[in-house]
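Q: What structure does this chain adopt?
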Amino acid sequence: MINNGLLLIIDAQYDFCDKSGSLYVPGAEEDMTRLASFIKNDGKKFRDVVLSQDTHQVIDISHPAFWVNKNGENPAPFTQISVEDVENGVWTSIFGKDRVLTYLQKLDNQGEYPHVIWPEHCIEGSKGAAIVDVVIEALKDRERRHHQHYQIIQKGKNPFAEHFGIMQANVELEDKPDTQLNMPLLDLLLNYETIYLAGEAQSHCVACTVKQLLRFPGIAKRLIILKNCMSPVPGFEHLADEIYGKLKSGQFAEV
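A:
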């Protein structure tokens, strides 16, 4: 049975959406205020709500503490690390070379974003990982009024793989189900006529969610992007233009 609609919210968390957050996306506070208004005023457009929650350890492949150079120094945030950097010893993982080389090679082969080091963010159990108040309060109020729950899906808990999109990690790890395609979520999305998509950041986790859903035309055709409820990471404003262009033009790659 096809339900009316679903609201899919990507990473509406303090570290991205609050000015005191470690990886604040400029404009995100206003985005989340508009999203809260959409939840309050347009709730009849969707029946259910699913939120992703980026969740990391301090020592994570995307964090400085995972890597050192020959002087024992960690990389600065926004450093890009390539296959060649690891092969040449510019950067070394504290867990060894082979594992990260395989990961970086797969990123290249799959056409994923280059590997970037981010400030420590969304640490499990920390305030930075929490959904921002304005969104949670809107969802709580909606639940009281309409008796409809919301669902939170954590992503990024495996420290050996980045996990931008909600559907799966950037690189699936063998025997690590938390990095592989989320089949229950995929099945859930098939139940809705319309899927409204919002969250942070437009250039990264929202875009990679779109990219992953482009593999499933039956779902991708139902997406409505809430453009005024998302913003890009500064310096990466046009990184995802190709992804959104494919969605707009209907360039789906069915699996």
